[in-house]
Design brief:
- The protein has 206 residues and is mainly beta.
- The protein has a single domain, classed as Metallo-beta-lactamase, Chain A (4-Layer Sandwich), CATH 3.60.15.
- It has helices spanning 111-117, 136-146, 167-174; strands at 2-5, 11-16, 22-27, 40-41, 45-47, 57-58, 63-65, 69-73, 76-82, 88-94, 97-101, 122-126, 150-154, 180-182, 185-186, 198-202.
- An eight-stranded mixed beta sheet has the order 8-9-10-11-12-13-16-14, covered by helices on one side. Strands 7-5-3-2-1-15 form a six-stranded mixed beta sheet, with no helix packed on it. It has a two-stranded parallel ribbon with strand order 4-6.
- The longest helix has 11 residues, at 136-146.
Length: 206
């Protein structure tokens, strides 16, 4: 599994299906008002946490999901669950990994919704506050409730989101030193930490 963060809540996953073919999953490819961001993508699967308004072009006819439900596409299992307000939470199962993307969540959701998420190996959590994302304290509380093996923050200050809060506030709330900072994470199920939650920071990359 290859994981990249493209700014805001946009995440790119590159996984393998049962035929050993590459499958690219793109989550939240929304056009930013400023900064560097591609005009189009060619994923196999496109997922949207708040509809397709203001999205960039997805070419070559990918499978697209922007509503609640569950579906399997190219051996990737996708569960779209209710978040806060109109926001959708995506749980993705691929290569035996459970990945959860909280979308552009602004406020902490109740425990009953968290329980529906279930086991989380890798959690993408928005941390930039400013009424656009979770405040760092609320983000850390959700991490504590879900107990993922790996936490990857998103939705913090970068060139396409200059008004968002900085990552350092969330790191301070977590009280965990980031395990790595890179433009891409490559991980397999056997690499998951067994005892503790690891914080991995991605540099914006496309």
């Amino acid at each position: 599994m290859h994981i990249s963060w493209l700014g805001q809540t946009c995440v790119k996953l590159q996984t393998k299906n049962k035929k050993d073919e590459d499958v690219v999953v793109l989550i939240d490819p929304y056009k930013p008002d400023t900064g560097d961001f591609p005009r189009s993508f060619t994923p196999n699967i496109g997922l949207f946490s708040r509809g397709q308004k203001d999205a960039v072009t997805l070419s070559q006819n990918p499978f697209v999901m922007d509503t609640l439900g569950e579906v399997e596409s190219k051996d990737v299992m996708i569960y779209a669950l209710p978040g806060d307000g109109e926001n959708i939470i995506h749980k993705i199962n691929a290569e035996g990994l459970n990945l959860v993307h909280l979308g552009k969540m602004i406020k902490k959701i109740d425990d009953s919704k968290l329980e529906k998420i279930g086991v989380v190996d890798i959690l993408f959590v928005p941390v930039g506050g400013k009424n656009e994302y979770l405040e760092p304290e609320a983000a850390a509380q959700i991490v504590a409730a879900l107990e993922p093996r790996i936490v990857i923050p998103m939705g913090y200050q970068c060139d396409t989101d200059p008004k968002a809060g900085s990552l350092s506030d969330f790191i301070k709330e977590m009280g965990i030193k980031p395990d790595m900072t890179d433009k891409k994470i490559i991980i397999k199920k056997k690499d998951l930490p067994q005892e503790e939650t690891k914080l991995m920071v991605l540099e914006k990359n496309y």
